[in-house]
Each structure stands twice: as C-alpha cells, then as structure tokens.
Amino acid sequence: MSEQRRIERQQLVHYLQVFNCITGKPVGSIGNISPDGLMLVSPLPMLVGARFALRVKIPEEGGALRCIDFQADCQWSREDVTPGTFDSGFALVEPPADYVQMVAVLHDYFRFVPEISS
Q1: How would residue 61 be classed by pLDDT, with cut points 50, 70 and 90?
Q2: Distance CA 59, CA 35 (A)
Q3: pLDDT value of position 114
Q4: 2, 34, 98, 113: which could join 68 in a potential S-S bond, CB 3.0 to 4.6 Å?
Q5: Is-contact 50 40, C-beta < 8 A?
Q6: pTM for this one?
Q7: What CATH topology corresponds to 12-110?
Q8: CA nearest 44: which of 28, 64, 62, 58?
Q9: 14 or 102: whose pLDDT is higher?
Q10: What integer pLDDT is reported at residue 5 of this predicted model?
C-alpha cells in the first residue's frame, strides 16, 4: 500500500545560507551546526587552513533580518555525494553570543522528541 506525503518537504539549504561578511555574497548553506563549528555545503571547495569572516541572516518577526557575524577556520573540505557540491568543516573563533543562541534555537526547533507510549 502506498502512502502519499501530506506535508511538503522544506529545503533547509534555502533558509540557512551563509554569506561572506566582507563581500556580502553567498558562499553556501549550513549542512549541520554546533556551538563550536559548522559544516558548510557550497558549490566550490573552501581553502583549508584559511580564516573566513562569515554571516548568517536570521529572519525576525515583521520581516526584518538579523545578521550574525562570526569568524571561522576551515578545517577540511571534500566533494559531497551530490555532484557539484562540496562539504567543508569550520571551527568557530570565539563564537559570539548571537551565534550560540542561534545554535540553541535551531537545536530546540529540530530536536527529535520520541513519543511516550502509555
């Protein structure tokens, strides 16, 4: 018996974009995130060992965007299983409070909570 999807999937990469702080241009999307770092999914490989000034734009109520700026060192970069994309691991340099708060909010929002059967 086939089931049809009732809830449309959302492509998170469209919502969690990362920008170059200096140029304002997009560099990729957040693949995963922690208080100490993130994995960036991008169309180009990132320079391992380099420090990047990055920005995430978070939507707020009323349509405004809040910018969270941070610096991160690229630890590794490799081709993704999806052709034409690369995964790169970044370690944050002194994560700002806004970044840490964003990680906590994302963790709470996407946390899997198992159902408790009675």
Answers
A1: confident
A2: 20
A3: 59
A4: 98
A5: no
A6: 0.79
A7: Thrombin, subunit H (2.40.10)
A8: 28
A9: 102
A10: 44
Closest CA to 27 of 80, 82, 88: 88
Cβ 76 vs Cβ 89: under 8 Å: yes
For residue 26, give both structure tokens. Answer: 């997009």
DSSP 8-class letter at 14? G
Is the distance from CB of 74 to CB of 89 less than 8 angstroms?
yes
Which of 8-12, 53-57, 63-67, 80-84 has the weakest average pLDDT?
Answer: 8-12
**Secondary structure class of 6 (helix, strand, coil):** coil
The 10 Å Cβ neighbour count of residue 40 is 24
Residue linked to tokens 């009323």: 62
Cα distance between residue 90 and residue 70, in whole Å: 11
Beta bridge partners of 88: 40, 77
Domain ranges of the chain: 12-110
Q: Which two tokens stand for residue 45?
A: 């490989």
52 forms bridges with which residues in the sheet?
A: 72
Q: What is the CA radius of gyration of the chain?
A: 16
